[in-house]
């Protein structure tokens, strides 16, 4: 019997104040299914694009997690918080003279220094595991956690607007950031403030793109969930945005699903992964073997009867 449960990907616009897990719980209720996951956590204070996989769509989440992302953010210069963002209260403040000395040129130079390939130390209050335990859990238990720097790429870090409120003890900087997976925008806020000698933290964050999925593709999740759930993006359509594709006929698809190696001259280089599609169905993610042969790595168990 064919699986009639929801299968595919949903792009939602996460509201502020909810965790990514909270969104998963809502989607489970909305679509009446337990098998739901997300590709890349957004902190509770953040809004914007959160990509969710339902059913076999969860098998594609690992490929989506690693794509580049775009954010709109507001950095507050003049103070720091334990979490490097507005989820905690400021506990370190700049000297007024230092804040008064900050200029547009200084901000531009600080942003430029954080653009390109950089080694970034994530916030200690993050989900990174240290000896099997989340870093934030160790911090909350009173430990002094120092995380190792990670290499990330900031392909764009643009200042959109700057509002000087020195008398109130801060300067707010609106920015747009294009970055690789694994980048912490709140760490950029912290490091920009540090470079200017005035401290800094993030007070607003909105993710506007995850790979090929933009905010214009995102749906708003209703509070009451009485509204009919929208159609999901198909597995094949999503796979086409993530990997090179190889099209096969029904007999070839069945052979792959049975674990057989499929000879073909329609594939990319040896070692690459490809999305194998038959008709409008995603058959599998396959590895290209010697001679261009395909071997299924992740089967999507479509009905081939």
Write the SSE topology:
Elements (H helix, E strand, L loop, with lengths): L7 E7 L5 H12 L4 E3 L8 E8 L6 H5 L3 E9 L1 E2 L11 E2 L2 H5 L3 H10 L2 E5 L8 E2 L2 E2 H6 L9 E16 L4 E10 L5 H12 L3 E11 L2 E2 L20 H8 L2 E3 L2 H8 L15 E6 L2 E8 L5 E6 L6
Parallel strand pairs: 3-12, 14-15
Antiparallel strand pairs: 1-3, 2-3, 4-11, 4-12, 5-6, 7-10, 8-9, 10-11, 12-13, 15-16, 16-17
Number of helical stretches of at least 4 residues? 8
Distance between the termini: 10 Å
Helix proportion of residues, in percent?
Answer: 10-25%
Shape: elongated
Order of helices and strands: EHEEHEEEHHEEEHEEHEEHEHEEE
Structural class: alpha+beta
Portion in strands: 25-35%
What is the name of the CATH architecture of one domain? 2-Layer Sandwich
Task: List how many beta strands DSSP finds.
Answer: 17
Mean pLDDT over all positions: 89
Largest sheet: 9 strands, mixed
What is the level 1 CATH name of one domain? Alpha Beta
The parts where pLDDT drops under 50 for at least 5 residues are none
CATH superfamily of one domain: Pseudouridine synthase
From the 3D structure, determine the CATH topology of one domain.
Pseudouridine synthase
Radius of gyration: 23 Å
Keywords: Isomerase, tRNA processing
Pfam families: TruB_C_2, TruB_N
InterPro entries: PsdUridine_synth_cat_dom_sf, PsdUridine_synth_N, tRNA_psdUridine_synth_TruB, TruB_C
EC number: 5.4.99.25
Mind explaining what this structure looks like?
The active site is at residue 43. Among the domains are: 69-210, Pseudouridine synthase; 243-299, Archaeosine Trna-guanine Transglycosylase, Chain: A, domain 4 (Roll), CATH 2.30.130.10. Helix content is 22%, strand content 33%. It is of the alpha+beta class and 305 residues long. The chain contains eight helices and 17 strands. A hairpin with a 2-residue loop joins strand 8 and strand 9 (133-134). The protein has helices spanning 20-31, 61-65, 96-100, 104-113, 135-140, 185-196, 235-242, 250-257; strands spanning 8-14, 36-38, 47-54, 69-77, 79-80, 92-93, 116-120, 129-130, 133-134, 150-165, 170-179, 200-210, 213-214, 245-247, 273-278, 281-288, 294-299.
């Amino acid at each position: 019997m064919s699986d009639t449960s929801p299968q595919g990907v949903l792009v939602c616009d996460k509201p502020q104040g909810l965790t990514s897990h909270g969104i998963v719980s809502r989607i489970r209720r909305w679509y009446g299914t337990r098998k739901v996951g997300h590709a890349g956590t957004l902190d509770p204070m953040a809004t914007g694009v959160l990509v969710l996989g339902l059913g076999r769509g969860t098998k594609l989440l690992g490929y989506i997690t690693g794509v580049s992302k775009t954010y709109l953010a507001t950095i507050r210069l003049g103070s720091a918080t334990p979490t490097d963002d507005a989820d905690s209260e400021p506990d370190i403040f700049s000297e007024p003279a230092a804040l008064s000395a900050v200029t547009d040129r200084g901000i531009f130079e600080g942003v430029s220094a954080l653009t390109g390939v950089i080694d970034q130390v994530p916030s200690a209050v993050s989900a990174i595991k240290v000896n099997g335990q989340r870093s934030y859990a160790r911090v909350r238990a009173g430990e002094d956690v120092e995380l190792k720097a990670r290499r990330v790429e900031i392909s764009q870090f643009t200042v959109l607007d700057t509002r000087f409120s020195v008398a109130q003890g801060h300067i707010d900087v609106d920015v747009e950031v294009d970055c690789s997976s694994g980048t912490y925008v709140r760490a950029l806020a912290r490091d920009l403030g540090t470079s200017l000698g005035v401290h800094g933290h993030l007070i607003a964050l909105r993710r506007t793109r995850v790979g090929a999925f933009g905010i214009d593709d995102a749906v708003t999740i209703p509070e009451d969930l009485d509204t009919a759930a929208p159609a999901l993006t198909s597995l094949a359509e999503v796979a086409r945005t993530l990997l090179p594709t190889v099209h096969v006929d029904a007999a070839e698809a069945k052979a792959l699903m049975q674990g057989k190696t499929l000879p073909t001259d329609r594939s990319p280089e040896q070692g690459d992964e490809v999305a194998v599609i038959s008709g409008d169905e995603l058959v599998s993610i396959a590895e290209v073997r010697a001679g261009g042969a395909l071997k299924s790595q992740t089967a999507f168990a479509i009905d081939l009867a």
